[in-house]
Structure formats: C-alpha cells, structure tokens
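Hi there, hope your week has been kind to you so far. Thanks so much in advance, here it is:
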Amino acid sequence: MAQTVNMKVQELPYLPPEVWVLVFGYLNTEEKHTARLCCRHFRDLIDHPSLWKDYTAGLSYVPRYTSGFWDTVQCRGVSRATVQHLRPKDWKILSKSLPSLNTIVCVRERRNYKMKYLDNLCEFPNLTSLGVRNATWVEPLLVQCQRKQLAERLTHLSVCNIQMSCEDTVEFINSVSRLVNLEYLLFHQQESEGLGRMRPVPSYIFHNLLLSLKKLKHLSWGMKGEPPVPLPDNYFYPLDPENPGEYGGPELISLELVNYTEIILSEYALRGLTSLKSLAVHYRYPWDGIQCNLYSWLNHLQQLESLSIIGGNFLASYTEALPPQVTSLTLRTSICACQMNSIASQLKRVEHLDIDQNRFADSLCKQLPTLFPQLKTLRIRFHREEPKRDLLFLNKLRHLERLELITRQTYILISDKNKTWPSPSLERLIKELRELSRNRFSIMTTMPKRDVFRECDCIWEREETRF
C-alpha cells in the first residue's frame, strides 16, 4: 500500500513548495500526520513552522519521548505546550528539549502545588504565558517568579479550578499584583471541603490588584461564593490614590465574569469601565430570577463591540439596552421570534452570532437572513431537535464565511443510544446546502479546537458525538 502511495505521489506534477504548504494548511492535525507518511518530501513540507504556529503540544511522561520526537517538534517551531504529571527531572528534560516554549499550561494535575514544582520555569527564556488547572495550592506561589526575574517576563496568567483557603487566596492575589507586566489574567477558584466557605476576593485586595496591573487588558474573573455583605458599587472601579475621585485601574478591553449571580454585584458595578469593548457574563444558574443588573450595565457600556450572555434572566429584561455597536453576539438562553426581532432592530451591525435553537425559537434559520444580513460567522446550538429543511434558507446569507451546527449529548433523543451527530438526514441537508451555496462558506458540525489557555473547563462547552 505504501509503495502504491509513493508511486502516485511521484506521478504528481511539480508544484512549488509554497503551494503545497498552502494546501496542507487546510488539513487538520490528524490529516497532516497521515499525509506526512507518504514521502520524505511531504514530511519536510508538513513540518514547516507556518503550519504549526497555533498548535499546542500535549506532553506527559516525558521519558517516553525520543530525540527524533524533540527534533520534529523543534523543527515545527512549536511554542505552546500542555503538560501533566511532570516530575522535577521531567521539567529539566523539557527545558533542554524545548527551550523556545513561550506558553505552558499545567493540566489535569490534581495535586498540591509547592514552590519547588515550578522552580524550572525560569529555564524557559521565552516563557511569557503560564496556566495551571485543577490543583490545590497550600504554599505561597510565584515567589520564585519574583526572585528569578520571571515576574518581569510573564504577560499572561491563567489559573482555573484552584482550591485555596480565603487566606491563601489573599496571599495569591497579592503575589499576582507584583507581576506588573500582566496583560491577561484568568482566575477561577473552586470550592473544596476543609478549606472554609468560599468568598469573592475582598474589594480592597482586588483594588490593589487592579491598581498594580496597569498594563492589564483582558480579565476573566471567577465570582463563585457569596459575600457576607454585597460587594461595593466601585468593585471594578478602584480610585487613583494620587488623583482622588478618578479611576486608577487599567484600561480593560475585555471582561469576563464566571459563575456570576445577581446578588454579588450592584447595578452600578461596571459604570466606570469606559474602555471596555468586550463583555462576557457566565451566570451560575440558567435563570437567576432576581432583578437583572445587565440593563443598567449595558446602558453605561454603549461602546461594547462584543457581548456574550450565558444563562441568567430573560432576554426581555435587557434587550432595549443592547449597545448598537455590537458586531459579535453570543446568547445562550431561550429565544423566541419576537425577541429576535427586537434584538435585530437594536443591533444592525452583527457579523458574528452564536445562539441556541430550541423549541421556543420557531423557524430561526428562516428568519436569520432577514434579521442579520451581514453575518460572517454563525453558530447554532440544537437542543431538542435536529435541523429541518429551513436550514437551507441560510444560503441567503451572502456574506457568510463559516457555519457551525453544534449539539450536545443531553439534548437530542437521549434514549436513542445509536443516534449520531450529524445524523444521516442532517448530512443530506448539509450536502444540499453546499450545492445551493456552491461551497461559498464552510460548514462544521463539531466545536473548533479550543485554546486551552483562554478557554478553561469552567466555560468550555464540550460537545459529544454520540447520543
């Protein structure tokens, strides 16, 4: 079989290497590895760094990797890696084999972190981004970062599902405050038995963080836990100690609130964030049932260009306050036809839309070309039924470049264990839609591969392929 493949490859007309690299760019990782086996020429082309610039290597049990493996990864210019269960000597091997790494994410660790575990981070001279998942920190961390100058290099820190006591949380946040060059910060705590009741980070500690991180542009903040008293109105608005009455924090571009409930922040909490361009709110519950603060927030954030709302109160409670400049909109809640009409009348520039198709949504696909004619990317999540023939109306979206049809295991025909996604009927519809559109836009039925640094388990929506 391999000989037959090689003969066919040799019979192909000559194409410049840059053309082959362009073609290989359309392949996923598995397809690239398959094509790489055809011949030495393809192997060299597929290892070109331009094909792996967004690739994240997954590494575990480092001793099993050969020198040939490390040579290949270096040849591809891989600069991002997830690691798990590394021993101190494994870190040393990694720092010698891939010293060019600029992003490291420690995943699935489920371990107690001590300072010595991360001692070898300073051996990566290009390291600027650090992520940690699913761990318990019982000792002060990041001290070695400050001691060995790593603090000056870190620009991105992503910490999710970390179990800490309230005292350790305060100490951790104070340590992060010293990473003065941070531009991106993700911090999501996880409740744990034996560590005391979880509380939001106190305002005076949070204010010190914001006052210290002047370069911070992107903040993803966990809001799990109920404060003994409501957080102050200026929780996200620290005052400048040198200019009384004026805002002293960083000029945030994007803010993400995770595990949020309405009782935590007031309706005035985001009033001072005039530089904000993107807001994402992940409610802890599908429906809060309490007075909605979004209406007041959005009224004071009319400069927003991207808005994501997952769960929370009914759309009608804040639709009228939607900022007209929004071009990217994600709504993970029940939507009916009248609400879609109201949203479309408010937002006339939407180019990227992510919504749910559920039993309340009527013929959503039929309405979209009229409501949002400028759409370039569209993701529809199907909860209770498969797409029907009205899916073909999406051909009328003349600017559409990418269509994603997504579902999850718990939504469609749960009792039918042989159900697959996409089903044969959906595959026929997709084929018909491609013919109608002459392949003008791509159609996907699975979620894009996630960015493990930015899209942690708290917010990543894992889709299943079987029902």
